[in-house]
Amino acid sequence: MSLRKQTPSVFLKQIIGRPVVVKLNSGVDYRGVLACLDGYMNIALEQTEEYVNGQLKNKYGDAFIRGNNVLYISTQKRRT
Amino acid sequence: MAANATTNPLQLLPTHIVMKSDKEIVGTLGFDDFVNMVLEVVTKFEITPKGRRITKLDQILLNGNNITMLVPGGEGPEV
Q1: DSSP string for residues in A20-78
Q2: ipTM
Q3: Which residues does the UniProt record annotate as the domain Sm (chain B) (predicted)?
Q4: B14-64 sits in which CATH class?
């Protein structure tokens, strides 16, 4: 675990291809594999699942999320 | 104790972040010009339901649009 100060641009290069959690401003949660993203936080996900309280929808293939809706993008390694 | 406030106001301190909505996040960080933030060892707090919600390890990229306030060295609401 590298606890160095990181800028977002460095972070973005590192997380592509990893399973992520994307939370929107509306509170909806999306979990999937990060296909690509840009500096506006526009996101393309694969094998996406949509969670509001419980599990709602399953999307397979690509999902595109517009960056202005994104609250955060988190990697999931589940070390807890 | 070190007053490095001129170059880097927010070093690898645990930083308490207050969002526009009733959410607060504590984590260690780096950030960019738009105040988007990369946080590690993140704890999310929601104010209305009592107490802390989710503790995430690894890293998150937090969108700067929703950030209201940063408290360097802060630990978040103590519950």
Answers
A1: EEEEETTS-EEEEEEEEE-TT--EEEEEEEEESSSEEEEEEEEEEE-GGGEEEEEE---
A2: 0.72
A3: 7-72
A4: mainly beta
